[in-house]
Structures are given as C-alpha cells and as structure tokens.
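Cont'd.
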Amino acid sequence: MNILELSATQIAKKIAAGETSSAEVTEFFLQRIESIDSQVAAYTSVNASALEQARAVDEKIQAGELSSPLAGVPVAIKDVLCTPDMPTTCGSQMLKKFEAPYTATSVHKLLGAGMIVLGKTNMDEFAMGGSTETSVFGATRNPWDLNLTAGGSSGGSAAALAAGLAPITIGSDTGGSVRQPAAFCGVCGLKPTYGRISRYGLVAFASSLDQVGCFAHHVEDLAALMELISGHDPRDSTSLNAEVPEFSKAIDESLAGLKVGIIREHIENSALDSEILGAVEKARASLQELGAEIVEVKLPHTEYSVPAYYVVAPCEASGNLSRYDGVHYGYRQLGESGADASSAPLDRMIAASRSEGFGAEVKRRIMLGTFALSSGYYDAYYKKALRVRRLIAEDYKSAFEKVDLLLGPTTPTLPYGLGEKLDDPVQMYLGDLFTVGANLAGLPGLSIPAGFAANGLPLAVQLQGPALGEGKLMAAASKLQGAGFFAPKIASV
Amino acid sequence: MTEKLPYEIVVGLEVHVQLGTTTKLFCNCSTEFGAPPNTQVCPVCLGHPGALPVMNEKAVELAIQTGLALNCDIASFTKWDRKNYFYPDLPKGYQISQFDQPICGPGYLDFEDPESPGDMLRVRLIRAHLEEDAGKSMHDEAAGKADSKIDLNRTGTPLLEIVSEPDIKSAAAARAYLTELRLLLTYLGVSDCNMQEGSLRADANVNLHIDQDGEKIATPIVEVKNLNSFRAVERALAYEVQRQWDDWQRTGKTIQDAPKRTFGWDDAKGVTIPQREKEDSADYRYFPDPDLVPLRISSEQIEAAKSMLGESPQAIRSRLQEAQGLKPYDADVIVSQGRGVVEYFDQVVASGGDPKRASSWVQQEVLRVLNEQGQDISQVAVGPERLAELIAAIDSGELDTSKGKEVFQYLLDNVEASVQQAKDALGIKAVDQGELESLCRELLGENQKVVDQFKDGNTKALGALIGAAKKKNPNADPRQVREICQRIIEQEL
Amino acid sequence: MALSKHDVAGVAHLARLQFAESELDQFTDQLGKIVSFVEKLNEVETDGIEPMSHPLDVETVVRADSLQSSLGREQALQNAPNADGEFFLVPPVLG
Ligand SMILES: [Mg+2]
Ligand SMILES: [Zn+2]
C-alpha cells in the first residue's frame, strides 16, 4: 500500500477497516517531513505529540467511539490558526514564541473528528504576500522547482501537500492566499464563502476578507473536510447561520444543464500567460463535454479589484495589527533612549517592538492602511475603495443571475523565481488580479490543477460560485478531475 | 450667581456610565468589581490574536432604556467602530465604540435650578453611545521610574457615554445635573453609579464667554478629566473657571489661539493640572469594526424597553406635591432616597396614613432606622401598613407623638406586634374623663401658687402641672390635662 | 498624490513604527508608488454608491449576558514579555 497514492478519505476508510492505523500513517508523514522538508521548508513546527495523539485516536476508532470521514487522517495547518501543543507564529518575529491559550474553532472541529495535526505550515508574515518569502522562518520552496516560489501566503500548506508531506492541509485566503499557492503547487485549493467557516482563532489580517480554506489533491477530500469544519459559530459574529450541505454527496451531481460563464476580462487580460489561457480553454471544452453550457460573462470592474483590495485590506490590517505592541504578548524590544530621547520609555518600547517585530511588507501595509484611514484621506481612499468594492460585488451578482459558475484563470503567471518580485510590491500585488474579486465580494473560489506547462510547472484554472455555492464548485471540479490531465500528482523532491 | 460676573461659564459634560451587566460588552467575562488583578480576562478581552467580539444583548437593552429615560431618539440602525490609539491598558490597540451612528440620538435632562429653587433647568444631550472600557494602569507616581502595572479585569466592561451640549452655566448646575442623572440611572437600575468604583465618571469641557465692550470672546476649551465625586466636579469647575479668567487677563489667549487641552483634577491639591496629551488624540482613525455586524433595533424592542422604565424621579416629585400635597422639599427628600422609599411611602398612604404625617414619619423615624442600622427599606421591621396604623392612632388622639415614638420603637423590636399590642405592652391606655378630672382637681388643690399665677395672666404656669400629672398617671395626655385645668380655674376657682 | 518624506514620518508615528533615514527614503518611494497605483480608483464613478464594509448583509448578532469561565491568571500572563505574577509590567509611561 502506497499511502501517497491514497486520497485522505481513502486513508480514513483503510484506518476504519483496520488495514492501516492512524499511527502508521502519521509516522509515515512525519518521516517524510523529517527527510524532505529541509529542502521544501513547508513547516514552521512539527507536532511533537502527533504520534501519541494518533495512537489515542486509533484506540477510539477500534473501540468504535470515533467514526468520521477523516478520522485518523493527519493534517497540516497554516501557522495562522491557533492550535494547542505548538506556537502560533504567523511567520512573524512578533509571535515567534506565542502559545495561544485557546484553539481555533475550525481546528477544534477537526480534532474532534479524530484528525491528527502533523504541524504548522509556513506562510508570508501575517498572511501578507504571495510568495511565502516574508516569513521569519525563511522562504518555502516550490516542490516542482525548488528555485521557485510556492506562492502565498499559504505556501507552506500547498507545498506540503504537493511534496507529499501531508495528505490534506488547511490555509487561509484573504486575497487569493489559498487559490494562488494551490495553482503554483498543482493542488486543489478552496476558498469558501465568507462566513462559511468560523474565523474564531484565525489570526486576523483583514477581517472582512479573511476566510479559512482547504487544500487537497482530491476534490472528494475537500468535500469531506468542508463538511467537517464549516458551520455557524456563536463566537464569530460574521459566521453564517446556514446549514452545511452534504458536500460529499453534492460532488456527484451531474453537470448536465449547468451554466458556466467564462470571464471575458480575465481571459482577455494582457497579463495572462498563454499556457494558462490554454488550460482555461481545455477546461471549457471538458465542461462542455460534461454537459455544461458555456457562455461569456463580464466583470466590468475587474481592473479596479486589486487597487480596491490594496486599500481595504491594509486599512483593516493596520487596526488588526495594533494589538502587537510588546505589552501583553509577543516580541518586546525596549529601544534605546537615543532613538527618540524626548519620548517616554513606554513609547520607545512600543515603537521598537513593532519596528523590529514586523518585517518590511507588514510594515508597508500597516503604513498604507494608517495613511488611508488618517484624517483628510479617509474619504478619498478608504470610503472610495469600499464604494468600488460594492460595484465589484454587484458585477458578480449580475453575472450569477445569468450563470451558475464562473470559469477563468487563478493566476496571470506561472510560479516565478524566489526573490523576483520582493522589491516591487505593485508587481507582486498584480499577481492577485484574478483572485481578490471573490474576497471583496465574499464568494467561494476553487483553484484546480490543469496539467503542466511545457517547462513542467503546474497549470491551474479557477472556478468561482455564488454565495454558499461550494457544492456546485466542487461538483464541477470533481468532474473535471475525472477528465484525464487534471489527475492529482505528487512532486518528487 | 449672586453678583454679576464679567463672563459666562460654558460647561459640557461627558459622563461614562458603567452598565449593570453580568458580563462584559463583547465576551463572557465577569464585570464584578474588585477581583484580583487579571483574573477576569479571556482571549477576547485580552485582545489575543484570532479572538473575536460578540455583542452582549443586555448592554443594548440597558442603553435603550437609558436613552428613552433621557428623552433621546433611539437609532433604528447602529454600528460599531474602532477608535485607534496605543495605550497599555487598551490591549487591541483600539477601543470598540460608536462613531457616526450612536445608539441614542439627541435628548435632554431637566432638573431643579440649584440657584433658584422651584425653577427647572434643561441640559440638552447630543448623544449617548456604547463602548468598551479600558483596563487599569498603575504608574509609579512617586518617581515615575518603576514599571507600570497593567490590570485588564475592567477591559471590555460596557460603558454608555452620555454627551451633553455646553448648556451648563455654573459649577453648582453641573453638580445638580450629575445628581439628577445619577438618581435617574439608579431608578432605572441600569447602573449602580458607584463613583468610588468608577461606575460613573465625568469629564468636563469648560471655557468662558467674556463680554468685552459688546463683543463675546471665548477662552480656549479645556477638558478636565478624572472627576470622580460630585464634590470634585464642583470644586474642579470653580477652580478651572477662575484659572481661565486669570489666564485670560494675563495672556488674552482666545479659543482661536489655542487648541483644546486636557487637564486632570488633583483632588488633594485642589488644582487642575495639564495632562500629558494622549498621543495623536487628534487622529483616532475611526472605521467600522469588520469583526462586528451592524445592529438593528425594532420598534417592538423600543416599546418593550419603554414598558420597563417606571415613574421618573421628577414625575414622582410632582405627584407627591400635587396628589399628596407635600412641600417640594419633603417630596425631594423622599424621592432622593430611591424608588424603595418612595414605594414605602406610597404604601403607607395607600393604607390610610395621612400623607403629611407619613412624610414626616418616613423622613424622621424610618430614615433614622435605615441610617442607624444600615438597612435597606425592604428590611425595616415596621412595614408600611403598620406605620399607617400608628399614624391613624396618633390622628385619632389615641396616642401623642412621644408615645407614638415609643410604640414605633416597640414595633421595631417586636416585628409581629400590632399597634394595640404595643400599647398594651407599654401600658399605654386612654385615661377616662372622670379620672382625669379628679386628677386635675387634686393637682390644682396642691398647687395654689400655679392657680394664682395663671389668674395673673401667666398661662405658661400650667406647664408645671403637666409633669406632676404625668407622675401621678403616665398615660395622662398633657394636652387634655392643660385644657381641663384651665377650664376648672376659669369656671370654678 | 505625491507623499513627502515628512508625510511618511507622520504616518509612521501614528502607526508606532520607527525607521532609519534610509528606510524612510525607501518607504516614501514605495508608498508613493502604491498610493498612485490605488488612485486608479478615481477613474470609477461612485456617486450615490453605498460603501461596502461587510461582504454579507448579516445583522444584529447578539449573545446572552451569561457568565463563562475566564482564563486563569497564569494563562493570561503566560505570554507576557514581562509580568510579576499579578500584573502585566510595562516601562514607565512618563519620560
Ligand atoms: Mg469615550
Ligand atoms: Zn473576556
């Protein structure tokens, strides 16, 4: 039995059937992490008690006290979700030693279902970035070419999956942070409807855009995980009070009569790589063969989505990151009296702790948000961006009056070299061109592998759906996955 | 003001009232005062990464009730905003407050003019909004060199900030306004208004309008903070008014020449001192809190709150004067004792006690007992029905006032006893006319001197007989003894 | 709009960030570029468009006023950079 060839749900079935055990599977992945992760750098920390917890779960399963579609399956979790046993660092100096005294609702749910946390995965600092290079733990590498970026900000979760260092992983998506690394690493990445999964315990970057997301090789695994961690949470005022459908059943629904819109502004965009455009065309053809009707739709404000996003997200971030002041937790640096002799020791401490505790990109976004909210600029930048945000949401609304799903690219380009865009923020930001819309509108988006480019790098396409449309998204994705070149593949590192 | 001042005092008050909820505004921690430091805290009120606020419905109810009692418009739609500033007792780096859509709109509070009893003053209210309290910082006041200590128990406690127009024209009026406000809030039961425990805190915005040959000149506005007793408010304002007047005469600085400044009141020294300005207080960068959703208030909710209000102190004052014929002073003494004493008084009257007598018995005997025994009105052994019975006995001449007080004391010590039983126990019985008649003849016989003096027109002389009569028969009613003796002398001797 | 070094220094103070001279030059340059990039929004006609601060129209989420156990003090102070077992400790507020 080659565990790497099994889907997460298949692993769970074999554990339930006694053909293998959670301990055996967990040990298998721990050993792979041990031997391979030094090259990929997908993990920030490994759960020292994973094996012990796996054995405990095995006992429960054998005693018939525990049965869930993913019971006993190991999972890796982005280091932005609060977990027991391990620090929650957000890839930042600021939280390098932070041990959360509570567990995120989503993590709590999957632990309750008998999943085993292998470890925490690397990310851009505070999820701000598209290349998992700004982490205090260093850059995560793309398993398909170790000199390239794995994407970001959930690069660690995507790379861990692609390199076979975990059978299923969890990330977060604020502007494409699940879908873009999924595309770069050749795995499936789902960003659910805003409010579908509780944000309680998800360290906030931009509260009105953040959403927990799932990575898997197989769409059936996404469906199983979604069923597990979705649902209303009284601890999160912004979590949706909608019942959770049986996604595992939903994915079997036929695509006959499904109306899929191709986003004109996406496929005609000059920045779009031709091979990625080719992948979208292939996806269109396959969907047609599967019985879907394809029409062209417009999202007229597409070109304004990135500028709107890079006002709204930094504004919320500037507030969310004010809590990191070296007072109650996190990094503290007293600062020299020389720095600003006039100021009080307290003020020096706060400024020094923040200036040393945060990296350049985080500081850039805090500065940008602070500026856009400051008196005199609030209306011109923040309010303006929120108005454009509504227009973008209305574009989606009218599109989904005509079609059930939207098809387009996930990213404009293939994975690029490490360090390539670090010094050019605006270029980096433009990489989110096709993903930020779903966050601004609060809608679900799913990136699925679409074969490989001539240079051997993964290609991907993105499906987007209406609010709470994850079922349809995953149904279409699983059918596409059935069609030849979308088959899952693990990078050999 | 007796003598005409060369300036008009202009004061607006911002009052922070701690609402009487069991738990904090956005988490389930206790709001109990006086717990050991940092024992009533959780990830939410500690501002931990990933923790999220959820609104306490009770705080909203209490805010609506208060708003209605203050004649405010209640918003049908309100929202939460972040007020951003850095301070160690503000763990998130922002305070959740309400900026442009407060829960309570304009209103007013009427109260008696302390400088001309009988006349009413009206202070208009701009707004009242909900917000979370900060924690407590304890500084090394002496040297200022040691570390400051931070206790976050109070962090997140619900406050209602009631902001008045600058309608207050004297220190005495400010005190009277606060006194009436506190009385109203305690009648509503929305807050214990304990100033020692910080449940009611006032900040005053003060300046002067100086008449200079016809034109009005305003002095720079000063906000005086930490006024934590009514006496402090009165003293601080008196001091600050004089300080501004002197300052104006010395410097001639007007509101155009200086921005608003913050002063603290040093109660020991009896002076206002310029405070270290809260950094950037000019730019709080308010924006809607994306972790909280807006709040809609239905007309049903407002009606429900209205039905909870009960009779206001001012309404009760007028009722006691108009319906019961009490003097304004007496009505006010009873009302300022709180709703319990008012209800006690009402029951005495309802049980047949004469209102005026009831008023004086409540003010003298009942309040004496409350003070002496530190009791609550509900605990007083002599219930309203008993007191009514006692008052009736006095009205009918069965008892004189001094005997009445003996009976009252007896009833205090013997909860079950009726007035009759008390009288029996104390050996108080009405003396019949014949008995009294012969007693008086006996006395007059023994005191020829008194008789002569009386005949010479010294009516007071009879006083000497009263004491003697009491010796012979403790139950002899002095009034009757006097009448009978007088009759006998005039008619027979 | 063009951001001056002075503007950026002011924003840095609001955000409680401090930069070395050279960093400040770099941030002034980068922020300037980003700001002019987002000013593309001015091309969009937004008169009468309601600002959208929430992706969903959920309203009025409340909880009952019922007590739940808080963290113990030990846990509350466990991550504190400096504490005395009772209080969080910070350097003096006064200069
Ligand atoms: Mg306030
Ligand atoms: Zn709390």
